[in-house]
UniProtKB/TrEMBL annotation:
Protein name: G-protein coupled receptors family 1 profile domain-containing protein
Chain ranges of the G-protein coupled receptors family 1 profile domain: 61-309
Organism domain of life: Eukaryota
Biased composition (Basic and acidic residues): 340-356
Family: Belongs to the G-protein coupled receptor 1 family.
Annotated TM spans: 46-70, 82-107, 119-140, 160-180, 207-233, 253-280, 292-312
Organism: Culter alburnus (Topmouth culter)
Major location (coarse): membrane
Length: 379
């Protein structure tokens, strides 16, 4: 009886303390059963280091792109506006997403509460889909520009602004439904990041995951493969006719296409596959480690996008070198091909869009006009 009373007194005394420790923050409505099993302390540290590297280099790379845009007016062309949209969406992820997951990984738990979790999931999904759609739109614009019989009007920004606005509107269409009852945002992986609730097995959530995978990941990838494949096919066909003037161009475009598609697959496809497995696979199939790796890879796209989609662009490359050397804006006209390792004598000038031109040599060689097709394409 004495022992019973002693135990009861200790329990009554500790009830407030236990309640306080169970609710670290009265403003944090996240329930314990809502938070997935976490990583070990070492796992959280490794994740925090990776996110810290992505945060630093993602901010620096995209800020560097924005500075180059602001420094050189010749870069303000319609197709480059789509490149700028990619950098803007990526730097927004670095500013409004990665810092929170980085801090949460350091502490080993989510720090911003239920409403902060929803904001994080929405913001990262919004900016990520904008980036994905911009990449696919960029591939289509390059393909369409290659098929135009004349040079594009570089002063007509209406189409480019429509593409930019369309990417944001399309992203909003797919990221607002979780607030309206179609699926929901919540903790994912080890509980230090938030996203769509992939693991929920309701028909409501599973249908949203499937639609998101098809319309925001698979279709952009198919469009990129189709457009860049067509570009490479056209360039390769011309190379067989005019080998000397197009061989280097073909090699450069081949490297660009392979790198773009490969990095897209590496950064985003693991995340999409893990989301599908979490939604449709057996329970417990996706462990915390399995879920955190694709998430980190997806965030790494903010680092590689500026490198791939800017430095593979010849016009940006020249402005990049001029920026590093503190030189004036590269000349739009009269670019000497002998002083540029990335250009050939028939390359397009910096502010020109890709197009096809037939170069007729003259009446003295009537048959040669069909063999002198020169592809003017600046990727």
């Amino acid at each position: 009886m004495v022992v019973y009373i002693w135990s009861l007194n200790i329990s009554n005394k500790d009830i407030p303390a236990l309640n306080q420790s169970a609710n670290v923050s009265s403003g944090d409505p996240l329930e314990p059963h809502d938070i997935p099993p976490g990583l070990s302390r070492t796992g959280h540290t490794v994740t925090a280091v990776c996110l810290g590297i992505i945060l630093v280099f993602g901010c620096l790379n995209n800020l560097f792109v924005l500075l180059i845009f602001a420094r050189f007016r010749s870069l303000w062309t319609p197709i480059n506006l789509i490149l700028l949209n990619i950098s803007v969406s990526d730097i927004l992820v670095c500013l409004f997403g990665t810092p929170f997951s980085f801090a949460s990984s350091l502490y080993g738990k989510w720090l911003l509460g239920h409403h902060g979790c929803k904001w994080y999931g929405f913001a990262n999904s919004l900016f990520g889909i904008v980036s994905l759609m911009s990449l696919s739109i960029l591939s289509y614009e390059r393909y369409a520009a290659l098929l135009r019989p004349t040079k594009a009007d570089v002063s007509d920004f209406r189409r480019a602004w429509l593409c930019v606005a369309g990417s944001w509107l399309y992203s909003l269409v797919w990221t607002l439904p979780p607030f309206l009852g179609w699926s929901s945002y919540g903790p994912e992986g080890p509980g230090t990041t938030c996203s769509v609730q992939w693991h929920l097995r309701s028909s409501n959530s599973m249908s949203y995951v499937m639609c998101l995978f098809i319309f925001c990941l698979l279709l952009p990838l198919m469009l990129m493969i189709f457009c860049y494949g067509k570009i490479l096919f056209i360039i390769k066909g011309v190379t067989k006719i005019n080998l000397l003037t197009a061989q280097r161009r073909e090699n450069h475009i081949l490297l660009m296409v392979v790198t773009m598609v490969s990095c897209y697959l590496l950064c985003w496809m693991p995340y999409g596959v893990v989301a599908l497995l979490a939604a449709f696979g057996r329970r417990g199939l996706i462990t915390p480690v399995t879920s955190v790796v694709p998430s980190v890879l997806a965030k790494s796209s903010t680092v590689v996008n500026p490198v791939i989609y800017v430095l593979f662009n010849n016009q940006f490359y020249r402005c990049f070198l001029a920026f590093l050397k503190c030189q004036e804006e590269p000349s739009i006209h009269g670019q000497n091909p002998q002083h540029s390792s990335k250009e050939d004598p028939h390359a397009l000038r910096p502010c020109d869009e890709p197009s096809l031109h037939r170069n007729i040599k003259g009446p003295q060689n009537k048959e040669q006009h069909t063999l002198s097709l020169v592809v003017h394409y600046t990727p």
